Every structure is written in structure tokens, then in C-alpha cells.
Amino acid sequence: MLQLFKKPVPVAQAVKQNVWDNLKSLDHFTEGNITTLERLFEDATDKHGFLAQLSKFCVARPRLIKLIDTPYFSKKHSGSPVYDLIIAACNYGSGNLVRSEEAVLRHANDSTPFFPLLLARIYRASGDAEKESSALDAALERFPVDLFTLLSKSEFELFQGNTANANAYLEKVKPAVIEFLQAEIDAIKDSSEDLRSAIREGMLSRSSKFDVYSDDVTRATWLGYFERFLTQNKFQSGDGFLIDYLDNALTAFCKKENIKAVLDFGSLCAEIIARPAKKLPHTQFIGIDRQEFVATMNYEAYDLPNMAFESGDIIDYLPKFGEIQGKKVFFHVRTTCLLYPALIKKIYSSARAAGVEYIIMWEGDGLSREHLQFFNFDDMPEESIARKSVLFNHNYKAILNETGYEIIEFVRPAFPAIYKDINDLVGSAVYIVAKLQK
Predict the structure, then answer these.
(1) Is the pLDDT of residue 3 over 60?
(2) Residue 162 forms part of a structural domain
(3) 243 and 362, same domain (yes or no)
């Protein structure tokens, strides 16, 4: 019988509000804080939810353990799930994975899968897929019907490129996943029908009902990205992982291929291209978005001689970009997931006409709330499918081939969050490099 999940209880409910407010204002944990949290954990009806929220709180605040991660406190509290989780999560957030592993290993044989799954994620963060797989297999042997264990194994298989295996593990827990995602499953119906209509009619502009980026939303999104990119590292959040991955990947690619110009389409916050720009002074980086104030905000934030910002229609701008001498990259991140496929094809065709040699992207391709399974490009049921809310999954292989490009690199980057809820475990993204066909 499937062991169904309990939705995590927010810490504000699991911990008295005055205690939680006090924790948020702390410079560091003290003896009293540990004792209070240990007592509240013992009284919590949803211990999984308590530990989940505590881990997310601590991973964002590594400084909190500067007093308690010492032999004095370790001798008194080591072995306590709350203390060891605080030590593990804070060290994880600062990248001290060895210390994090030490704390988690003390609970590797606990009667619940919470700590065994944390151990697997620490191995992922260390880049050791073999150890991660072994840890997940050990957890599955002990907890064969646990929702989070089966979804963690499904996610691992997906990131390893084993889509059929990922779907097989997902199938074992699909009733629980459907129950958790039911509101999103119901909401996707309108978006899916809108997409099918757009494909039939060859529509370029998004229906007003689904065009969510108003000026206010765009400003708020820019500021949110700016804050997370500057304050969170690759262990602390998906955005911290994204910018670290793309900084390394784009910098290395531009160096290797002697790229002279990069055009970031739908740039929003330009921190993603600012980091490579600092290291590649002879490469020009241009960000373009449809609203003029986005360019203004980026000019206020970034003052590098090899960076520039534009606004307007990308198709109108691409011929100008094509005038730049040398190899060029058309780059986009979390942008085409909002566009109809006909517009993507028109943009890529315009890039080809402008002589752009490469297209590089990072786009989501998580679980479709309509189809409730994962797909490779070759087995997608349609050219584009609705994923969730207003977001789409596209068959980039087919779209790129149709517009004159071929994929030369494909990765599903595996974000190593210390804790993942159900939404996280069915999410994924693709990093693609495509080259102009001769």
C-alpha cells in the first residue's frame, strides 16, 4: 500500500509565531534556541514538515552556527535530529559538505527517510552520482512505498537521462502526486487549449489572458532575481545554482569558441551575463527585453564597457546584432517557455539569417500537469505541451532543426537542494547548445 504524503506544515504553524520571529532576527543560535526547537520538534505532529522547513531556513543562514558548531555544543546535542539538522543545513549552505555529511550520517538509520534522502542530496552536491544512487537505493530498500523516496529516485533517473525509469518510479506514486498537484492540473486545461489553438493558427503573440509580465510584475521579478543572484550561492537556491552553472558554462564556451558577442534575449536582471562579461572583456554582452525600463534598471546596476542593453522587438534587433564581426551567441534563460512555438521558430530563423552561429539556452522542462509524465524530445506527444500555469515545454530539438540549428550539447542540470518538496522533485530544466548547420 502506498504511503501517502502529508503536506509540510509551515514552520509558522509548527513553531509558535513569537519563537519563529525571534529566530529570524538572530545573529547566531544559542543553547536556549536549540533546547526550544528540540522541545517543539518532540511536540510536532508533522515532524517531516518541521524538519523540512527548518532545513530550508538554516541553509539560507549559515552564519547561525558560529557558536553552536563547536565541540562544547556538539558533546551536549550531537545525536539530536534538530541539532544535527541545523549543523548539516548551515554547513551545506556554506559549501562545507564534509561537515554536513558527518551530521547527517548520525541519522542514516533513522526510522524515517528524511535524513537518508538528505545524505543522497549531499552526495549530489559533491558531484558523486554513484554515491547518490547508492544512497537512494538504500533508502528505497528500507522505505519502498515512501512518496519522497520514490520521487527522489525518479528525479535521479531523469537527470541521468533515463526517462523511462523516471516515469516508472513516478507511476508508483502518481495518485499521491495527482492529489498534491490537483489545483495545477485543473488550472492547466485552459493554457493547454490556448496552446493548441495557437499552434493550429500559427499565432505569434501570447493571448492577453496568459501574458503575465505586466510592468509591475516585471519590475518585481527583476528585483527578485537581483537579490537572489547576489545573496544566494549554488547550494542555497535554484537561482543560485542556475547563475553559478551558467556563469561557468557560458564563460568556458565563449573562451573555447572565441565568441565576440552574446545577445541575451528576455534578459530581465542581467547578472547572468554580467559575471561572464567581467571575465571576458573582449566579448560584447547585450541584454534585450521588450520593456524599456528593464534596460534602464540594468544600466543602473551594471557599468561594464563590454555590456549594453536594448529594448524592443527581438526580431527587429537581430539584423543589427548580425553586423557585429566574429562568432555570435543567441542566449536565453527561462524565456521561450512563455512563447508560442511559431514565435520561437521565427526568432531562431531570424538569428540564422543574421549569421548567429550558436544558440545557448536554459529552459524548464519539468512534469507536464496535463500529461503527468516526463518526455525526451523524440517522444513528446506534440511539438509543444503545457507544463504548468502559463509555462510550456517545447521540443527544442525539432524546432532547432527546422530553423537550421542542431544540438551539440544537452544536459539536465541537477540542482542539489538540501530539501525538495513534491513540486521540486517533478521539476527540471535543460541546458542546450545548438550550432548553425552549414
Answers:
(1) no
(2) no
(3) yes
Q: Are residues 139 and 262 in the same domain?
A: no
> What is the domain count for the chain?
2
Nine-digit cell string for 8:
509540510
Q: C-alpha grid cell for residue 82?
A: 534538530
User: How confident is the model over 242-287, as pLDDT tens digits?
Assistant: 999 999 999 999 999 999 999 999 999 999 999 999 999 999 999 9
Q: Is 428 left (phi over 0), alpha (psi -120 to 50) or beta?
A: beta
Residue 60 has pLDDT above 70, yes or no: yes
Nearest to 215 by CA among 270, 294, 286, 269: 294
The alpha-helical segments, DSSP class H, found in 270-332 are: 271-279, 292-301, 314-322
Range of the domain at 51: 11-145
What's the mean pLDDT in 221-228? 97
Q: Which of 414, 233, 246, 230 is nearest to 333 (CA)?
A: 246
Residue 169 maps to a domain: no
Q: Give the Cβ contact number of residue 252 at 10 Å.
A: 11
Q: What is the CATH number of the domain that holds 112?
A: 1.25.40
Task: Judge contact between 127 and 138, C-beta under 8 A.
Answer: no
Q: Which of 100, 117, 145 is the last residue of a domain?
A: 145
Residue 189 sits in a domain of what CATH number? 3.40.50.150
Closest alpha carbon to 294 in 322, 278, 271: 271
Query: Within 10 Å of residue 163's Cβ, how many Cβ atoms?
Result: 17
- For residue 72, what is the enclosing H or E element? helix 71-77
* Cα–Cα nearest to 14, from 56, 61, 38, 46: 46
* The C-alpha cell that represents 125 in the structure block: 552536491
- Within 10 angstroms of residue 285's Cβ, the number of other Cβ atoms is 29
Rg (CA), the chain: 23
pLDDT tens digits along 406-421? 999 999 999 999 999 9
Predicted confidence at residue 438, as pLDDT, reads 82
Model pLDDT for residues 72-105, shown as the tens digit of each residue: 999 999 999 999 999 999 999 999 999 999 999 9
Q: Is residue 170 part of a domain?
A: no
Q: Which of 432, 353, 355 has its CA nearest to residue 394?
A: 432
The whole model's pTM is what? 0.94
